[in-house]
């Protein structure tokens, strides 16, 4: 306990500031909407996330002002263990591992694009709504066409985000361009929103010399420094501790920005997930952990991945304020991420957002999900709970979209994509020199030698080297 | 033989580093002045000429008001770290107990009080995660130094080090760089048990994109620490548990050593002995015996474990034609195995005998003191090997 108070003034100040907001609903949304949706777990007695700071305050009182304390009754016995004061009870009670009632899911818009008259939320402007919808359509078409391209053997691999368009686009729309994005792989929509062009997507998938990754990563593993989207790395959850590190960097610089780390339900089993949440909480890092709980990790359903009430309950275990949101509801996702961002930056703390959704597509082009799940289950989600259709209905209701806009956009995007693919396919692959550059800042002599050896081999056997790849 | 064994304990713990210093001074030409030196392979390196450093304690006999200052190896590491933190506000430290506790080996002592809790960050116990954190911070522009309490624990960070640290600069097409320094003590200590006696340089040496250096004296510890921090590449700095209390006089002037250079410890003519870290001291112990027996070994502390300084090593091989490698790694897949291959590939024409490599056996390090001693190459074995090699 002593260590807590000898930390630098900065952190102690944060503790004092945060103690209030921990126990109060978030100031940015109106009180009514928060109290109606107890998704923030503020009132659940079974989950003792507020306990730590409460007891810290209690400890301070005891330290400073012992004479004025009300005398403790027999039942009010407490012990000051390391970590704070705990009240004692003679009633043996185990906290349930699974709640009687599952955490509620924040939801604003039904399948017909109608919002609840009583719910209040920040309105989305026409401009933003139309861009959101157009990008969702673009993402859909991009997924279809690139998937087909893989099936035709034109690219080696692809992975779709079908069913998760709302999570991708709506969350991206709630962020600022300064916010750092660390994605898993099913979030190209975020990059799309920020301005990555269709040509750039195609270049990366075809691994040609115009790819800003210089053809070094698999398709879908996009990265763009200028758009603040860190290059995707295949192993699951490795981006989570990196996100905490990036947030730590923003914190040091006092930037008005946060980090958003995306990951799926499967990644929450990795050790890195738990440690990152813990670190972020201890370090008070401005990072939003956004979990796309789509029900499946390749063939593993969530019932075999964890036994808790989803991911949202794990946040409080680490002292993190959390919310569960309907991932197919673009408005809800947008609002929740916007609020989370405010909290993360102004209160310098991590937030966990669990977006519930369904992975309509196969895991990737290497997977055939019909082998482990019924086709009608997939159809139910694809037709009945489609996030894109739902949002379109809402936009149409506002008079901001028409059938004509729809068909025009679809055919235009399709044309652009086919064009981009043709260009990307024809473009030269990266030259041999790119095999050896960027391993280090300056290539060491051993790599230089290896390059020379390779070049000699190519010169000696030119018939074995592809003619369309520059040297 | 018994006398040598008895000496081992004392010698290994606190050898007189000054002696080695004065020997090297005699044979290295003093290059004056410039801080930047262009090596003969054309690559520039930031190094203070060794002559200048030796000049600092030129009057080896008098002790009064000598230039330079004496300190222990862990203090030298700290001095290097502090100087870099002063110089560049982007440099930060993260690890377990590095803050107020000052680090398990006191390398970061006093730094948290000076730079604050955020720049010298105490992390929870999750090596993969705080290494990942350092990588993320580096990609955003900071220059973190990640401390593993013991190198062995960094096995938990292998995923981040291999898959991300070494790779992201490449896979991002050069967009993101990872100028991290990962450091910590490793090697066989005094009865620390198998899990705390790991030699991670063997496991990490294959990872593309990282550099590895091993320090062995206060002088090179400070210089390598500074060089590692300034490098744009991820660097793993291997320290040794038993060398932290070595005392040496180092220059007051600022100096930065080259990450890719080996150190000539004792020039000679008969045999090239390549070693690094703690084994350097066992080799120098053996060298004393060898000199008495009439041999003239050339001892090189390779320092740079990845990439090898084949320039310095090659020149030595061309002169002596015999190579003995003395390492603490296991026989199988250690630094010695790679070094043997590299030398054979490049300098086979200059070798008069097969390369001999003395390493630890392929066993977990036992706790029992005498058994532990026998898993580590002893000076007597080195003497025997040289004698056999020079027949």
TrEMBL record, chain A:
It is an enzyme of class 1 (oxidoreductase). Pfam families: E1_dh. Signal peptide: none annotated. It is found in: Mitochondrion matrix. SUPFAM superfamilies: Thiamin diphosphate-binding fold (THDP-binding). One of its GO terms (biological process) is branched-chain amino acid catabolic process. The keyword Acyltransferase does not apply. Its cofactor is thiamine diphosphate. Heterotetramer of alpha and beta chains. This is 3-methyl-2-oxobutanoate dehydrogenase (2-methylpropanoyl-transferring). It comes from Vitis vinifera (Grape).
UniProtKB/TrEMBL annotation, chain B:
Signal peptide: none annotated. One of its GO terms (biological process) is pyruvate decarboxylation to acetyl-CoA. Its cofactor is thiamine diphosphate. It is found in: Plastid, Chloroplast. GO terms for cellular component: chloroplast. Its EC number is 1.2.4.1. It is an enzyme of class 1 (oxidoreductase). InterPro entries: THDP-binding (IPR029061), Transketo_C/PFOR_II (IPR009014), Transketolase-like_Pyr-bd (IPR005475), Transketolase_C (IPR033248). One of its GO terms (molecular function) is metal ion binding. It catalyses: N(6)-[(R)-lipoyl]-L-lysyl-[protein] + pyruvate + H(+) = N(6)-[(R)-S(8)-acetyldihydrolipoyl]-L-lysyl-[protein] + CO2. This is pyruvate dehydrogenase (acetyl-transferring). It comes from Vitis vinifera (Grape). The lineage of its organism: Eukaryota, Viridiplantae, Streptophyta, Embryophyta, Tracheophyta.
């Amino acid at each position: 306990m002593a260590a807590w108070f000898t930390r630098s003034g900065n952190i102690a100040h944060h503790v004092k500031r945060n103690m209030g907001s921990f126990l109060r609903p978030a100031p940015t949304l109106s009180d009514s909407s928060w109290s109606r949706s107890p998704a923030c777990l503020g009132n659940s007695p079974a989950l003792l996330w507020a306990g730590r700071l409460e007891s810290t305050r209690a400890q301070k009182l005891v330290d400073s002002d012992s004479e004025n304390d009300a005398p403790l009754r027999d039942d009010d016995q407490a012990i000051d263990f390391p970590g704070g004061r705990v009240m004692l009870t003679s009633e043996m009670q185990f906290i349930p591992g699974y709640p009687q009632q599952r955490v509620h899911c924040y939801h604003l818009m039904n399948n017909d694009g109608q919002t609840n008259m009583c719910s209040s939320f920040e309105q989305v402007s026409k401009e933003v709504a139309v861009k959101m919808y157009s990008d969702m359509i673009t993402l859909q078409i991009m997924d279809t066409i690139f998937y087909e391209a893989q099936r035709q053997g034109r690219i080696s691999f692809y992975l779709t985000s079908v069913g998760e368009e709302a999570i991708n686009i709506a969350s991206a729309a709630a962020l600022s361009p300064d916010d750092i994005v660390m994605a898993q792989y099913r979030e190209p929509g975020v990059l799309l929103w920020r301005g990555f062009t269709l040509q750039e997507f195609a270049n990366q998938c075809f691994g040609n010399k115009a790819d800003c990754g210089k053809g070094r990563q698999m398709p879908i593993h996009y990265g763009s420094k200028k758009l603040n989207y860190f290059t995707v790395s295949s192993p699951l959850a490795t981006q989570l501790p990196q996100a905490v590190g990036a947030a730590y960097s923003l914190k040091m610089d006092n930037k008005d920005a946060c980090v958003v780390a995306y990951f799926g339900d499967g990644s929450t089993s990795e050790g890195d997930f738990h440690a990152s949440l813990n670190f972020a909480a201890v370090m008070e890092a401005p990072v939003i952990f956004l979990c796309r709980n789509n029900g499946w990790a390749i063939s593993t359903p969530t019932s075999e991945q964890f036994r808790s009430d989803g991911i949202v309950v794990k946040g409080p275990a680490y002292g993190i304020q959390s919310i569960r949101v309907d991932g197919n509801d673009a408005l809800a996702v947008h609002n929740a991420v916007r609020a989370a961002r405010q909290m993360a930056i102004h209160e310098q703390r991590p937030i966990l957002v669990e977006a519930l959704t369904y992975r309509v597509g196969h895991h990737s082009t290497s997977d055939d999900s019909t082998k482990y799940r019924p086709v009608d289950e997939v159809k139910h989600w694809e037709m009945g709970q489609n996030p894109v259709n739902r949002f379109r209905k809402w936009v149409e209701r506002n008079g901001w979209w028409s059938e004509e806009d729809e068909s025009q956009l679809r055919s235009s995007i399709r044309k652009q994509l086919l064009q981009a693919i043709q260009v990307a396919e024809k473009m030269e692959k990266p030259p041999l020199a790119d095999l050896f550059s960027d391993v280090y800042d300056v290539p060491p002599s051993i790599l230089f030698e290896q390059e020379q050896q390779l070049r000699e081999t190519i010169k000696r056997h030119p018939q074995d080297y592809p003619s369309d790849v520059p040297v | 033989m018994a006398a040598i064994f008895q000496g081992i304990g004392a010698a290994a713990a606190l050898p007189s580093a000054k002696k080695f210093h004065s020997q090297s001074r005699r044979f290295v030409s003093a290059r004056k002045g410039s801080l930047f030196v262009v090596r003969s392979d054309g690559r520039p390196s930031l190094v203070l000429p060794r002559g200048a450093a030796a000049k600092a304690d030129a009057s080896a006999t008098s002790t009064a008001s000598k230039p330079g200052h004496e300190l222990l190896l862990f203090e030298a590491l700290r001095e290097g770290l502090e100087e870099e933190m002063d110089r560049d506000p982007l440099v930060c430290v993260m690890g377990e107990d590095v803050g107020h506790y000052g680090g398990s080996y006191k390398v970061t002592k006093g730094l948290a009080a000076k730079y604050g809790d955020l720049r010298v960050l105490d992390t929870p116990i999750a090596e993969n995660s705080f290494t990942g954190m350092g990588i993320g911070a580096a990609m955003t522009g900071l220059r973190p130094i990640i401390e593993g309490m013991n190198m062995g624990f960094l096995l938990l960070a292998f995923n981040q080090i291999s898959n991300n640290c070494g790779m992201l600069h490449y896979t991002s097409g050069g967009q993101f760089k990872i100028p991290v320094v990962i450091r910590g003590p490793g090697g066989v200590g005094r009865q620390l048990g198998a899990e705390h006696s790991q030699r991670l340089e063997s496991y990490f040496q294959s990872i593309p994109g990282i550099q590895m250096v091993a320090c062995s004296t206060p002088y090179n510890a400070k210089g390598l620490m500074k060089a590692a921090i300034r490098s744009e590449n991820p660097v793993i700095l291997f320290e040794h548990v038993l060398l932290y209390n070595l005392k040496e006089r180092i220059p007051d002037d600022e100096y930065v050593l080259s990450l890719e250079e080996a150190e000539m410890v004792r020039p000679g003519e008969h045999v090239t002995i390549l070693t690094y870290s703690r084994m350097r001291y066992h080799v120098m112990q053996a060298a004393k015996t060898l000199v008495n027996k009439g041999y003239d070994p050339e001892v090189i502390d390779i320092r740079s474990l990845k990439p090898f300084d084949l320039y310095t090593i090659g020149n030595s091989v061309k002169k002596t034609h015999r190579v003995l490698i003395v390492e603490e790694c296991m026989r199988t897949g250690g630094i010695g195995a790679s070094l043997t291959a590299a030398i054979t590939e490049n300098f086979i024409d200059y070798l008069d005998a097969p390369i001999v490599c003395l390493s630890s056996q392929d066993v977990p390090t036992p706790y029992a003191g005498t058994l532990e001693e026998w898993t580590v190459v002893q000076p007597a074995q080195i003497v025997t090997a040289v004698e056999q090699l020079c027949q």
